[in-house]
Amino acid sequence: MLNVSDYFQSAVGADTRRVRVEIPLRVSAPGLVIGETTTESNSVSLAISGCPVLQSVVITFGTAPSSFTVEISQNGHVYHSETITGNTETTVTVTGFTVYYPDTITVSSGSAISVSEIFPGYVDTWTEDDLTGLSIQMQTDFSGLKLPYGTASITLDNSEKRFDPRNKSGLFLSIEEGQPVPVRLGVDTTQGTEYVPCGVFFQHDGGWRTADSGMTIKWSLVDIVGLLSDRAFTAPENLPETLSGWLTAIVSQLGDSFSEMVTVDETLAGTELTCGAEALDGKNCGDILRWLCQATGTFPRADAETGYLTVEPLQADGNIYRLDNMESLPTIALNDRISDITFKVPEDNTVIIGGNSAASAQSVSVDNPFVTDDTGAIAASKGILAAYGGSKYTIRGRGNPSSELGDRMLLEVERDIYVTARLVSQSLEFSGGVLRGCKSELIAGDGTEFEYSAVLTGNGVWTAPRGASSIRVVLVGGGDYGADRDTGGAGGRIWYGTIPVNRGQVFHTYIGQGGTSSRAGEDTVFGNYTSAYGKRFDPAYYDAVSGLPFGRSNNSSPAAHSGDGGSYRVKGASGTILLYWNIDPQWKDGEWFFAGEVHSGEVDA
What we know:
Blueprint: H1 4-9, E1 20-27, E2 33-39, E3 43-49, E4 53-54, E5 57-61, E6 68-74, E7 77-84, E8 91-94, E9 99-100, E10 104-108, E11 115-119, E12 122-127, E13 131-139, E14 151-157, E15 180-189, E16 192-211, E17 216-222, H2 224-229, H3 243-251, E18 262-264, H4 285-296, E19 299-302, E20 309-312, E21 317-321, E22 331-334, E23 340-345, E24 349-354, E25 363-366, H5 374-386, E26 391-397, E27 408-414, E28 417-431, E29 434-435, E30 438-444, E31 452-456, E32 460-463, E33 470-476, E34 494-500, E35 506-510, E36 525-526, E37 529-530, E38 541-542, E39 549-550, E40 576-581, E41 585-588, E42 591-594
Parallel strand pairs: 18-20, 21-27, 23-25
Antiparallel strand pairs: 1-12, 1-15, 2-3, 3-10, 4-9, 5-8, 5-11, 6-7, 6-10, 13-14, 13-28, 14-17, 15-16, 16-17, 19-20, 22-26, 23-24, 26-30, 27-28, 28-29, 28-30, 31-40, 32-35, 33-34, 33-40, 35-36, 36-37, 38-39, 41-42
Helix pairs in contact: 3-4, 4-5
């Protein structure tokens, strides 16, 4: 019998077992403070505070008493007293009451009593038999320009009115904002039911409604990123100075119980990050989280198992999505493209990073107080460009909760034809005991993630490597001679974009020479593409992959093959060609491999 991992990787229809749902709840008031326990021969009392409302108490006994009494008090007055008789259980849940701001829970018996725990709250496990619907949406963004978050919609059978807001003896008030609701999905195996975590969610801004005359109740929950996104940030007296310090300060805005709910890549946790308090005025936690991720080349998500805010760089490889896992062929569309990214840095300076396509009408401007120089801007641009360019793939099928956001997946787009793409969103739709119609979106960006590269500085012929279907090209024209005493010579024009290539396609290359007193800087040519179609950049064009500047104007010492314009009476620098590519994966004999070749990057004269 297939295990849970095999089940989600198996062909749609190959395994028709019902999917199990488990939502284990241990719910108490978010601000609950457990005080001292007072034990006497026949009673145990627990002092509590910070509990606005109590509707359930769970008592665990060392030995099950046949009868006992539970009293809920406030300021010495008993507001609820209940005696249970004929008991045989060691764990007993007492419900059917509502007491506001209780401070003492007492369990007593006519004889000696052994109490292991008194839990002021609600403990239960919802399963697929309790639910009429479950919809989970996981999503993230690599750019730091926006902050999507995960959601869960849980529709519960409420025929007994346990969660009816009008039922004074129900449990409706027990599910408060900020309380964790973990969700797990599983399947039956020969070793029992095996579950995988699908997220931990929280009630937010009410987030409930009844339907069907109160026979069902629907909870709309968000993950920890959703809790933080619009939360105002109150700066501590001493501002943090590291990535982990800032993240702890952010989650602490949700309350003390959240202060440790953060996981950060250990190699980046100590990254120094500072900014002035004035930059934080009027900002919310979501703004600061985006800035931090941009500045450190990371992205945020909620950990599926713990619910913690997780900040990490993009991971290497994830699962394989085959056509057999899908209900239909993937939908393929062009992903959004950007022309360039302009970073505002101190002293009114700017750093311009080349985007995915010089022809795009969309530009991005970033004002991030944690990005203060060109080195920081180049690092931050990599995450932004990972979210743009290339293709966007949409698939529908059973879904796979073991897939993590940001993972680079191997996606079969046609029989035995695969591409690599990163998972940016995934829905899990549970209805009628099965998962179906689950939508996943993946992006195969073409901005910064490349395995191979070449720098061409000579004229001749360049042959596309076997296994590459597209190549990112940057054409830098020659810079102009410094004819003007004040402005010098302009930097060369620069064109960039991703072009499709045939196997073994040949490109004739010409490197534009720098300008002299008798001629302007020349255009650089790669096959049918030329830098003449590009534009000049002020103060420079930064290549996001190499991190190098090109096309600077009025430069007293133009770097070789930089396309820099010279200062007064200084020759312009010649241009260059930058090429970046990946090798398309192929599936053979039960595994995938890359059948490409590493190109030397040289041209044949």
